[in-house]
Amino acid sequence: MLENRQISGMLRQIARQDVIELGPEMSRARIAALAHVAEHYGFEYADAHRTGQNKNLIEVQMYRDPRPEARAREAATIAAYTQAGNGGAVPGMRQGTLKPLPEAQEAVTQLGDRIAFDLMGNAASKRQMLLPWICVAALVITLLVCGMYIGAVAGGAALAAFLIGGVKIGEIRRQRIAQRLTDAGFVAVQDEHGRQRLLRSGQQLPGHANPFAG
Length: 214
Hints:
Blueprint: H1 2-16, E1 19-22, H2 28-40, E2 43-51, E3 57-64, H3 68-80, H4 102-123, H5 126-145, H6 149-183, E4 187-190, E5 196-199
Antiparallel strand pairs: 1-3, 2-3, 4-5
Helix pairs in contact: 2-4, 4-6, 5-6
């Protein structure tokens, strides 16, 4: 099954690497489920970004947590799930699938929320917000060159209003996610790039606050 191949691929990364990447050709829910499994092997969520030609794919990065409790968790998982990656059970999932067991559902949902929060934060960065406004300016200039002065004003205003509305809706969604996570005990911090991040209590940002940046 596809899920077994995805689990096996992740476990191969875990065996060889201190930093692993999940995705990109998976849904956010499935990536969150894989990330939950990786946490049992002593890995911690780092960041998420969009990739692909149309930026419609998601990629998540996780790093090996060096703390003793994470290493103990990894050893216990390896001992308890000896057939993981070979079609056997993995922690928190129904066997052979990436469907969370009831006791893992909340943790997987929180990982999905963290991924969504970071994706929206990246989308709202100054660099990525510049392109839509360039499109507004290009539309206005094109209509002006064509002598469509009223259309330039109306079209530019309509497109700008649409973009502003989209930004506000995205910010409201992000605030709601932040509230859910802080209610669950996650802590808001600011990374070296000025982005707000939500970390598990006691978690530290990895060496680079945004592992995908260079």
